[in-house]
Amino acid sequence: MIYGFDFDGTLVESWTAKPLPGVRGRLAALPAGTHTFIATNQAGPVFRAVLGQAKYPSVEDVAQRLTDGLRALDWRPDLLLICVAPPLKHQQDYAWVRAASEAITALNVTIPGLIVRIGRDPTWRKPQPGMLFAAARYYDMRIRSMCYIGDMETDRQAARATGCGYLDAVAWRKGAAT
């Protein structure tokens, strides 16, 4: 079985590196040898570049938060998939596409032993299923052998679009079977 996780609101408090209550214990309880990955939308740096608003995180902020969050969880997945694609309504606009390409070049998450893939492909942006299909290809596994855990409707929609299992993050943190 492969377990995939959203990051913000599922493993850590959104926009922080602070683990949510119960997450460390639930991750530690996964059977030894379980394959795990994170699939997360992180287009904040693209919004920052195009709109020029400091309220959105920089690529450095995102990289640091992901690194610090994994360290705080005392856990490392096998694979980290990051989508920097802008929302659908902006995906044909040159400024947004250019900003996504620049974010890919600048985003540097380096954790020993962690495979990181960063994409700007619109099919990767949840609710699209691209990141989940990429994870299945990485593990060379059937998608039905995967359970994705998330906190938003877009997470559920991405899982449904692939045909993999889905579990709500709150239910998972409270002990629901994966």
Gross morphology: globular
Instruction: Point out poorly predicted stretches.
Output: none
CATH class: Alpha Beta
CATH topology: Rossmann fold
Which structural category do the helix and sheet elements fall into?
alpha/beta
Strand order of the largest sheet: 4-3-2-1-5-6
CATH architecture annotation:
3-Layer(aba) Sandwich
What does this structure look like?
- With 178 residues, the chain is α/β, with parallel strands linked by helices.
- It is built from 7 helices and 6 strands.
- The chain has a 6-stranded parallel sheet with strand order 4-3-2-1-5-6.
- α2 packs across α4.
- The model has no long low-confidence stretch (mean pLDDT 95).
Task: Describe what is shown at a glance.
The protein has 178 residues and is of the alpha/beta class. It has one domain: Rossmann fold (3-Layer(aba) Sandwich), CATH 3.40.50. 38% of the residues lie in helices and 17% in strands.
